[in-house]
C-alpha cells in the first residue's frame, strides 16, 4: 500500500478509542506495534499439537507493514534490482499481494528496501507476527480481531463442507483480493487472516517446548546455516547491507547473490531439512476456517513458491 510522504495518525477501524500510529517508509505504510507481554499459542484450547505448550513471550515495540507487500511494491524492486518477476496467476498485479515468492525472494526484497531506506527491513519473527495478529496478544481467534470467520470480512475457503462452529459458510473466491479490501484489525493491520500465507523469519519446530528451544535460525539478526558448506553465519547489526561471515569469503550478501537461487544448477544451494523450514502464518484464500486462526502454524521449504503465499515486513525503529 503506497502512501504520500509523512507520518499520519488516525483512529482504528476496529476498537473503541485506540489510535494507530502510522509511518511512511520507502513509500510503504507501517504501523507501530506497541510493546507487551502475551500468552503465545493455543489459548482457546482448539489448536494443533505444535501450538503448545502455551508460553509467555515479551515483545518490544516494532513497525510492521500494514499490508502484505503488493505487486506494485515488489515489481518496483524487481525493476530496480533486475530481479525475476513472479507470476500473478492472471489475477492482476497492482494493489494485490505479491504471490509466487520464495522465502529467499522475500529476503532479497528486504535487503533491497534496507539499502534504499537506510533502515533494517526484515521479515517478522513468528512471535511478532502472532502478537500483532492477536491485536497485542488478545485472546482472539482471527487476525481481524474477531472470533467468527465471515467470508465478507476474511478471504478464505468458506464453502459449507469446511465450515466450523466458529465460521459462517459463504463464498469461495478462489483468488487473492487487493491488500486493503477488507477491514483491518484494531492495530490497523489488514488481512492477518486469509488472503495469503505470510513467510516469517522463524524456523519451524514441531513443538514450542521451552522458549530457549525455539531457535530463530532464520532471523536476520541471529546465526544460521544458509548454504551448503558454510559454517554458522553472523548477520551484522545496524547495517543496511548485512555482512555475512562464512559465505563467499565474507563478501556482502547482496540481492544478486539471491538471484542464483532461481537456478537449481547454481552453487548456492540450501542446507535444509524437515525441521529447518521457515514458518508460514495467517492462512490464505484457499484455506479452511481452522487454518486461518491466528495461532495456527504452517511451514514449508524456503525455496518453494506458491500462488497462496507472500509476506509482510518489519522496519526497525529509529
From TrEMBL:
It comes from the Bacteria. Residues 29-218 form the Sulfatase-modifying factor enzyme-like domain. This is Formylglycine-generating enzyme, required for sulfatase activity, contains SUMF1/FGE domain. Gene3D superfamilies: paralog of FGE (formylglycine-generating enzyme). GO terms for molecular function: formylglycine-generating oxidase activity. It comes from Candidatus Kentrum sp. LFY.
